[in-house]
Design goal:
Nucleotide Exchange Factor Grpe, Chain A, domain 2, 2 domains, 3-stranded antiparallel beta sheet, 3-stranded mixed beta sheet, 4 helices
């Protein structure tokens, strides 16, 4: 009995084959479309990340520059503070020495130079005063003794005004008490009498 080839190997209709091939094509293109859209999404995500990282880098650079500038300012301020501390550390101590110097000068003023009995005392006081002035000079402390100079309110303190036609107005006629400065800063202003017209 002859075998039926149609049952075992049925012949497919050409229209069925075209439908299958179309299904395979569409099935093949859908994953490609999905892959390409996923690729676009990942590129956009990467670009967004790059922009965010660039922005963070710029902010970090700005913050670093600000921090460096602040550190330089702190360093400068601390150096200036240390310099001031070195310069003016002796200010209080120097101020306490001034009455001693004043007393030595007053003692010299009271001694009459003609008397033999007081010459050795005068020499001793003069040497003591000189050594005091040498010591304060080593530490940039200077005497403000403005006799005959124009009055300067930053360095002098006027105690009184005296009429005097021989000198110009606002000239220091007499120094009641000498002034002192330490590294250019006035510790004590000179007390003076000033001329007026």
């Amino acid at each position: 009995m002859p075998e039926n080839n149609n049952e075992e190997n049925p012949q497919q209709d050409p229209s069925d084959q075209s439908a299958e091939s179309q299904t395979e094509e569409t099935a093949g293109t859908e994953p490609q479309a999905e892959a390409s859209s996923e690729g676009l999404d990942s590129v956009e995500i990467m670009q967004a990340r790059i922009e965010k990282l660039e922005q963070e880098l710029t902010e970090a650079k700005d913050q670093t520059l600000r921090t460096q500038a602040e550190m330089q300012n702190i360093r400068r301020r601390s150096q200036a503070d240390v310099e001031k501390a070195h310069k003016f550390a002796l200010e209080k101590f120097s101020g306490e020495l001034l009455p001693v110097i004043d007393n030595l000068e007053r003692a010299l003023d009271t001694i009459t130079p003609d008397e033999e009995s007081t010459k050795t005392i005068e020499e001793g006081i003069s040497l003591t005063l000189k050594s005091f002035l040498d010591v304060i000079g080593k530490f940039d402390m200077t005497v403000i003794d403005p006799a005959g100079e124009p009055f300067d309110p930053q360095l002098h303190q006027a105690m009184s005004m005296i009429e005097n036609k021989e000198v110009e107005p606002n000239t220091v006629l007499h120094v009641v008490q000498k002034g002192y400065s330490l590294n250019g800063r006035v510790i004590r202003a000179a007390m003076v009498m000033v001329s007026k017209s």
